Amino acid sequence: MIYLYLVSGIFLGWALGANHAANVFGTAVAAKMVRFKTAATLCSVFVILGAVLGGAGTTATLDKLGAVNALPGAFMVTLAAALAVYWMTKLKLPVSTSQAIIGSILGWNLFAGSATDIPSLARIVLSWGAAIVLTATLAAALYSLFRAVLKRTRVRLLVLDAYTRAGLIIVGAFGAYSLGANNIANVMGVFVPVVPFRNIEVAGMFTLTGVHQLFLLGGIAIAVGVFTYSHKVIQTVGNDLLKLSPLAGFIVVLATSLVLFLFSSRGLEGWLLAHGLPAIPLVPISSSQSVIGGIIGIAIVRRGRTVRYRMLGEIALGWLAAPVLAGVITFFGLFVLQNVFGQEVVRRAATVAPAAPAVVPAPLPPPRTTILPAGAPPGLTIDIPRAAPDVRPAERTVP
Q1: What is the pLDDT of residue 364?
Q2: Cα separation values, 172 from 153, 176, 305, 307, Å
Q3: N or C terminus: fewer CB in 10 A for the chain?
Q4: 84: in domain
Q5: What SS3 string covers 131-157?
Q6: Residue 196 structural domain
Q7: Among positive and negative, which fits the CA dihedral 294, 299, 302, 303?
Q8: Element (H, E) at 234
Q9: SS3 category, 115
Q10: Closest Cα partner for 183 from 227, 242, 142, 131?
Q11: Is position 179 within any domain?
């Protein structure tokens, strides 16, 4: 029964893979520089590596926002987020899994009467906005730089095509690793406080902890989603919003990968703190929003030409609808689990009963002494109470 609850996390991982593979390989596939099967294989391998090796940093942030402390509750939180993401995927819209899981956690907080950590929520929301601006800025700067270099060097078209193809594969793999490291918290983060797996010693070389096993399971679910259902969203990101050249697609993926890495690297955070610099918060950000930010950055350099603003508005509407939908599903789903199926969706803190007052025993009566007078017949006993000692102070004698 315990492992059955993880099905919702696996479903959310599948939905994330189906929706977010487009963010790292969408432009390469849409530009026909990389075949879909090649992109899906690379994305699957590196997203699993990123989830297992680098997924711990962003998970701590979700724990601060709302620590779901019961497996049935974690099941409903991830199921609601997965349903919201799946619905957006059916509409061919790139949706933010980060926003969906945050909406679900807020729905759980509301149902459980648990206080939401407002500073953590504000840090997450501000990081989402910062990620879009940062990706747009990086994409605009890199696009302008590469275009200027290509104009001066006059690289042959076939050589440029080969370089671009190789670059798309490299940055796609890097983007898949960063996606796994940053977004595995959205898939399995709520199960970390109640992780059901035990540590496993692997050939005496290293220990695969319960959290690592949880992240591995989520990474595999993401990989399955990439292979089975990501092709539709790839077309939206790669073609429908803005017609991207292979070079522009390379720049968008590179900028997105760098931003995802910045917001998930514990090593970079430690280095910045060691040198007295402000650290970048380890927050699960939306790769979809970062990709859109990169596309907008290139569109600004192009002075807004060929951007489909109607499609951009539909994507933004999906970003707003996903967390609200996930929160509503979570709240009512928790109600049904608790009141219809009798599941403990919230583990209340145990109350300690006040200590009973100490009972003081009554003083024992003074011991009794048995004295037999001379010549008394056998069996005759007379109990005489022993006199209590005289504790009065001795009288003072005057000479």
Answers
A1: 57
A2: 25, 6, 26, 23
A3: C
A4: yes
A5: HHHHHHHHHHHHHHHHHHHHHHHCCCH
A6: 3-339
A7: negative
A8: helix 231-235
A9: coil
A10: 131
A11: yes
Question: Alpha-carbon distance 368 to 241, whole Å?
Answer: 104
**Is the predicted pLDDT of residue 104 greater than 90, yes or no?**
yes
In a domain, 371, yes or no: no
Q: Which segments within 138-263 are labelled E, that is strand?
A: 200-202, 206-208
- CA nearest to 229, candidates 17, 27, 87, 31: 17
Residue 173, Cα to own-chain centre: how many angstroms?
22
Contact 30, 238 (CB under 8 A): yes
Residue 33: what pLDDT? 83
- pLDDT tens-digit readout, 66-96: 778 888 998 999 999 999 888 877 877 767 8
Least confident of 31-40, 191-200, 295-304, 355-364: 355-364
Amino acid 174: pLDDT: 95
Give the Cα separation of 85 and 329 in Å (integer): 12
| Coil/strand/helix, residue 231 | helix
Structural domain count of the chain: 1
CB atoms within 10 A of CB 168: 26
Residues 6+ apart with CB under 8 A from 382: 370, 371, 372, 373
Q: Which helix (H) or strand (E) holds 369?
A: strand 368-370
Q: Is 230 exposed, middle or buried (0-12, 13-18, 19+ CB in 10 A)?
A: buried
* 301 class by beta-carbon count within 10 Å (0-12 exposed, 13-18 middle, 19+ buried): middle
Handedness of CA 240, 143, 259, 128 (dihedral sign): negative
Helices (H) and strands (E) in the chain, counts: 14, 4
57 lies in some domain: yes
